[in-house]
Amino acid sequence: MPHRPHTVPPFVINLFFVIGLFSAFCFRVLIVLQHLRPEGVRVVWYVGTVGYTLFFMYRYYISHKRRRAIRRYDLLEKIRNASDLADEDKAVTLYLLSSLQKSRENINYLFIFVLSFLAVLADLVLTFMGL
């Protein structure tokens, strides 16, 4: 029997929430920082980019885990055939599961994660090469 899906502990959820917010803040403050403290731009950019890399890697993992659970447990079909649920309850549950299954959020998360990682890597390589 496969491992039953479960939510992560609240401190993990809160940690990644704060990482995402802080990273977003870092990117917004860059505009002001380039005028007031240009020497700090690179550090703040790194903090924001590494934070986004972690945040979107986590979001991809959660999105993938949800889609896998829906598929593994055949939840859409089970809800369609459930007789104990009211029609409205079925419709809402099917909407939620279908929406999670069809969403392309996981591709968005993966794309941002990869681009953030590549941006840091490119900057390190270019800096090391003296460019």
Structural class: mainly alpha
Termini Cα gap: 54 Å
Residue ranges: pLDDT <50 for 5 or more in a row?
none
| Percent strand | under 5%
Largest sheet: none
Q: What integer value in Å does the Rg equal?
A: 20 Å
- DSSP strand tally: 0
3D architecture notes:
- The radius of gyration is 20 Å and the shape is elongated.
- With 131 residues, it is mainly α.
- The relative contact order is 0.11.
- Helix content is 81%, strand content 0%.
- The longest helix is centred in the middle third of the chain and has 32 residues, at 41-72.
Summarize this entry quickly.
81% of the residues lie in helices and 0% in strands.
Write the layout of secondary structure elements.
Layout: H1 10-36, H2 41-72, H3 75-81, H4 87-102, H5 105-128
Helix pairs in contact: 1-2, 2-5, 3-4
Give short descriptive properties of this protein:
131 residues, mainly alpha
